What we know:
The protein has 354 residues and is of the alpha/beta class. The chain has helices spanning 29-41, 64-75, 107-121, 158-170, 184-197, 220-227, 261-264, 266-269, 276-291, 296-306, 320-328, 336-349; strands at 4-5, 12-13, 16-19, 46-48, 84-89, 126-131, 174-180, 202-208, 230-234, 310-316. The protein has one domain (4-243, 299-333): NADP-dependent oxidoreductase domain (TIM Barrel). Helix 5 packs parallel to helix 6 and helix 9 runs antiparallel to helix 12 (336-349).
Amino acid sequence: MQKVQLGRSDLQVTPICLGTMTFGEQVDEATSHAVLDRSLERGINFIDTAEMYSVPARQETYGRTETFIGNWFAKNPGARDKLVLATKVAGPSRGMPWVRAGDGMTAKDIVASCEASLKRLQTDVIDLYQIHWPERNVPMFGAVYYDPSKERAHTTSIHEQLEAFAGLVKAGKIRHIGLSNETPWGVHEFVRLAQQHDLPRIATVQNVYCLVSRGLENGLDETMHRLDVSLLAYSPLGFGLLTGKYDKSGAEGPGAPQGARIAKFESVRKQRWGRPEALAAARRYNQLARDHGMTPTQMALAFCYTKWQVRSTIIGVTSVAQFDEDLAAWGTTLPPEVLAQIDRIRWENRDPAA
């Protein structure tokens, strides 16, 4: 698997990234370490986590994912040097008062969160440090429309955030920066201000991208292409909808597999992945895969693995077997007729999990 460059940085990563938000809630520490072992064994050199993980976010599990990874590094001397490690600083509260007392994301907050992540991860440097979601008012996590009435009087400027990152880079605590859950305007402003003030330039944006949520193709992909910022695609399997596991029942019905996130956690069902329209569209994609001799997982991952917009696809798993299945989809080429039918389904259903 040939490595790819992230933006204009010197980071060279595999086009598949191990996402870890299940570590600490669905996945215990021993299984987490087994997945990390297998990932390294299979040549994946890119790991993504966040200070607020695991998910769904709870005060009791805040920081647990990073702690599990840090303990794995401690058990495996030399592993850290083989990996590109990405983590994220959480945005303002969103109902999580245990994250910096629910405050915003000032320069001081960014530095404090970075230092706490370094301690949990038991490492001296973070290769890619990302803003998990913007502090400013933007539509995200299932919201579709920008609402000016929700603007707040006081927010931390992008310039101030970039200056905080610059200090962390100068101190040797982070190497490069990225964004997540961002908009075209936000990406452009981060790049513009970095260039204007000689501050760190974003290398990546981590946004949702999958068959049932392709809103990124409505303008953000052009912005990222022209500004040379790389996409890290998360939720390529639509939170499990695109695996086919919910096809025989409602997403929260009796046929949902025990332990599956969307069946287990009410907070997830209330978000975009629990919409009936998202499940209906996923069933159509899943049947298309079967009609062409593929598993739904194979087709959904191949879609992301082969799209020009995607630099690296983040896969989250709950077992070693799941990880191996997701890796097995690498190298799958979708025939032109399948791609045409995928676009036809999208035309009829749009992006129900946007």
